[in-house]
Specification:
Elements lengths: L1 E9 L5 E10 L4 E5 L6 H8 L7 E6 L2 E2 L8 H5 L2 E4 L11 H11 L4 H14 L15 H13 L5 E5 L7 H16 L3 E5 L3 H5 L4 E6 L2 E4 L1
Parallel strand pairs: 3-8, 3-9, 6-7, 7-8
Antiparallel strand pairs: 1-2, 1-4, 4-5, 9-10
């Protein structure tokens, strides 16, 4: 599903943010990505989401070399990905319900086909009562939960999550972790970036540690 071989990435003429990143994730893997602030975790996830291209090395997603993917291919591959960004990226003029349902609408599903699933998922993340509200009325933690629900609603083949529990309390963090684990049990490959060692300790997920631009498989 994911294979990186000696990948490096830099912004402009600056120094390398990623220097020599190599790891592989098979279908159905669950891994945590850890590292100090500024280590490049978000950069690595953006590369895997195809928002960035490597400066050197080879990065394969679903067997496709991301350096050679055409602009036309990008939407087709991204539909197989679920992504939770730190800045949430909710659509301001859409309700909570419609933000979560967006990947299903883009895939051509009808509201009648997905309404129950979206409501059930909002109930799971504790936001069923806010389905009709706009993102501007939500707290940071609530926005984060909407972003998570949107990322998982289509049961993506790969889920990339950047600090998905950073703005929620421990009880909700544990509940969200169970959501990710259930999605993984159903076949989704999960890469979850986090600083939360307690969250990691609750599972048997393997850990990738990003340090000095290099990934160590722990």
């Amino acid at each position: 599903m994911i294979e990186l071989n000696a990948v490096a990435l830099r912004y402009g003429q600056g120094s390398d943010v990623l220097k020599d990143v190599s790891f592989k994730m098979e279908a159905g893997d669950f891994r945590f990505l850890t590292g100090a602030s500024g280590a490049g975790k978000s950069t690595l996830l953006r590369l895997l989401f195809l928002a960035l291209r490597p400066s050197r090395g080879q990065a394969l997603i679903f067997g496709e070399d991301v350096s050679n993917i055409s602009t036309r291919q990008l939407p087709l591959i991204r539909r197989k990905l679920g992504v939770v960004f730190q800045d949430f990226r909710l659509v301001g003029h859409l309700s909570v319900f419609d933000n979560v349902a967006l990947p299903l609408r883009v895939a051509g599903q009808r509201p009648a086909d997905y309404q129950r699933d979206v409501i059930d998922l909002l109930d799971w993340v504790g936001l069923k009562q806010k389905a009709k509200e706009l993102p501007e009325t939500l707290s940071g933690g609530e926005k984060q939960r909407v972003a998570i629900a949107r990322a998982v609603v289509s049961k993506p083949e790969i889920l990339l999550a950047d600090e998905p529990t950073g703005n929620v309390d421990p009880a909700m963090a544990k509940r969200l972790l169970h959501l990710f684990l259930e999605l993984n049990r159903l076949g989704t490959t999960v890469l979850l970036a986090t600083h939360d060692e307690q969250l990691i300790a609750q599972t048997k997920g393997k850990v990738l540690r990003l340090q000095n631009g290099i990934v160590k498989d722990l």
